[in-house]
Amino acid sequence: MLDGNGCLAITARTITDADPANRMCWYGPGRFTSARLNTRGIFSFTYGVVEARIKLPFGQGIWPAFWMLGANFGEVGWPECGEIDIMENIGREPGTVHGTAHGPGYSGGNGLGGVHALPEGQAMKDAFHIFAVEWQPGTIRWYLDNQLYCEVMQAQLPKGTPWPFDRPFFLLLNMAVGGDWPGSPDDTTVFPQVMLVDFVRVYQTTQHLE
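Structure (tokenized):
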């Protein structure tokens, strides 16, 4: 849904057993609702600059992300399809953004990328920031507010591993609650939490337009 300023608002809320929104998960009754948006089957592209202006949520167990998956995900699965995490943030690191590339042989906790931290005392929740990648053949670069903070090149891959980033990818925006990396919400976590998205943009040169 949209907030009063026209931004997309992805909202995480707590739910009760009696709430109509509650659905039984594989591990038992759900405790939270949130949302994920993706362009799979609607829009995919190869190479370009991808950016979004986002104001992040906060709190222990909160996990917002802006990311990409190979459009062949349904055929080959993950991590063979490749994944580019343009932005990930976890609640216990309120001032830090993670940018990561995942593929066969370098996925999950072994993904390739880097982190960037705001000056001490600042948090991502306090203002909108622009998260971006510049994606070219053989190279992916990550930016926060137009400042380059990480670069991964095909030549850096672990020996014998493939580079699955020369084919179409689609975009995803979501806010997860809990998980192995961020951990679960605790008594300090305030709900609802809102991830505000002002815009998402993709720029390509004419030679890469599909």
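The two ends are 30 Å apart (CA to CA). Helices lie at 73-76.
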